Amino acid sequence: MARDFGPRILSIRRLGGENLLAAVPQKQIDTAYGPFYLRGGHRLWHAPEAMPRSYVPDNTPPEIKRTEEHSLHCIGSVEGPTQIQKDIQITLREDSVRLEHSLTNHGNWPVELAPWAITMLKPGGIAVFPETSRRTDPHGLLPNRALVLWSYTRLSDPRLIFDEGVIRVDADAAIAEPLKFGYANTAGWQAYFRPDLRTWFIKACDYQYSATYPDMGSSAECYCCGAFIELESLGPLVHLEPGKRITHTEVWYVWGDMGFDDLGRLV
After folding, report:
1. What's the pLDDT tens digit per position in 29-66?
2. Taking CA 21 as the corner, what is the angle to CA 16 and CA 24, rounded to the nearest 5 degrees?
3. Range of 59's domain?
4. Distance (Å, rounded) from C-alpha 89 to C-alpha 72?
5. 226 near 123, Cβ under 8 Å?
6. What is the rounded CA–CA span in Å between residue 71 and residue 93?
7. Is the model's pLDDT at 68 over the cut of 90?
8. β-strands 34-40, 23-31 pairing
9. Does residue 133 register a pLDDT over 90?
10. What is the pTM of this model?
11. Nearest in space to 182 (alpha carbons), one of 214, 135, 226
């Protein structure tokens, strides 16, 4: 957990192992509110993305307090331009980490937004996103899924692989061009395998069938460039009233001494 800015999580690793999260300290985005430092690690945003609203700098030290024996609560400053306050509560469990991402509206008007949890991982691995084969009608005549693409994404991109039951992304550090896609991830999990470390990182959250999600219905998104790959989960869109708070929960798992084919039994 970063102490000088945030709320941000800068590291997750197996005991004695390598940090799986990416670090990009040199990446800076100039905005009307001052420089936004991408930094790396894991962060909380609110969707839909917009410039400069999404890039309000988080350069002030957060308040960090221990709420339970194995739990920390990291509370950021209220964003001046948006009057939204971000906080993340982290709870260590026996086999996982629970992250509760919350947004609070300190302004005078309702704000339409969705919580957006973004995990930046080092390149060199393979991201896996589950697809569904569930029919939407008894005869299979109607479509059952949609893929949302950003303007710079090429379907011919060699990193993007449509496999049996999953979408794969090979995070190749040699390919700098960005790609991004999103979709309704009804299975609720997404994963990243580092073959050099024989390690799986998996994060999971609940999908709400009755909710409306941002970005054409996306509850999961992936952004990839040469420096890092992002595994992103999104909560439903809400009209957050003044003084109200919304929470989006992820559960993280890290499994070592594994092969790629072990994913099936892990999820």
Report:
1. 999 999 999 999 999 999 999 999 999 999 999 999 99
2. 125
3. 8-266
4. 6
5. yes
6. 9
7. no
8. antiparallel
9. no
10. 0.97
11. 214
CATH at residue 143: 2.70.98
Average pLDDT over residues 147-159: 98
- Confirm whether 154 is domain-assigned: yes
Give the alpha-carbon dihedral of 225, 250, 111, 39, to 10 degrees.
-40
Q: Which residues touch 69 (CB under 8 Å, ≥6 apart)?
A: none
Q: Which two tokens stand for residue 59?
A: 């350069």
237 in a structural domain? yes
Domain presence at residue 2:
no
